Each structure stands twice: as C-alpha cells, then as structure tokens.
Amino acid sequence: LHEIVVNRKSRSLFSGAKRWFGTSKPSVGASTSLVYTKDAPELQVRKLADIYFLLKMYKCSHQHYYTIKKDFQADEAWSYYAPAVELAALSLFMLSLTDPGKKYRAD
Fold this sequence. Notes:
- The protein has helices at residues 2-7, 9-21, 41-54, 58-74, 78-98.
- It is mostly helical.
- α3 packs antiparallel against α4.
- The relative contact order is 0.13.
C-alpha cells in the first residue's frame, strides 16, 4: 500500500494537467456524482491514512488526509471530500493532544 502511495506522485501531476486542459465544467443546475473504483489511487491513500489513524500515527494520517482532501476537492467529489476534511481535522486535533508542543504563559 505504501508503494502505491509513493508512486502516486506522478498521478498528481496528471490530475493537475487534467484540470487545466479538461472538458468544461457542467452547468450549475446539473449535479454529477463521481464514484471511484476500489483500486483508485485516491481511495488507496485514504485507506493508508485510515490505517495510520488507527495506529495513532496522527502526523502521517493528517498529511495523507490533507493530500486526498485536495484531490477530492479538485475532482469535485464532495461525498469523498467531506469525510476527508473531517478526519484531517480530527487527526490534527489528536496530534495536538499527543504532542502539545510549546507551552505559553497565560499572562
């Protein structure tokens, strides 16, 4: 799974080119629902982020959720985008609980 994610870097360049040179966007009234296959790179990254989250590796999970969040937003796959945003926020929150960082004085 990790090798798939590492090889995915070139896919992001392709999706960027697809956005620039792709077909025109549908009209405002028309709604399209995008469905990914099980072996889609976006869902593989999401699966890897879920595994990192379950193993309490919140920094890695946040990085992967943030990456796929941008991909889902670019593809306008809102039903995939919303959970990715929620889990990115949750992993960032959990990271702040496990790694408090600097302590500031409460003047």
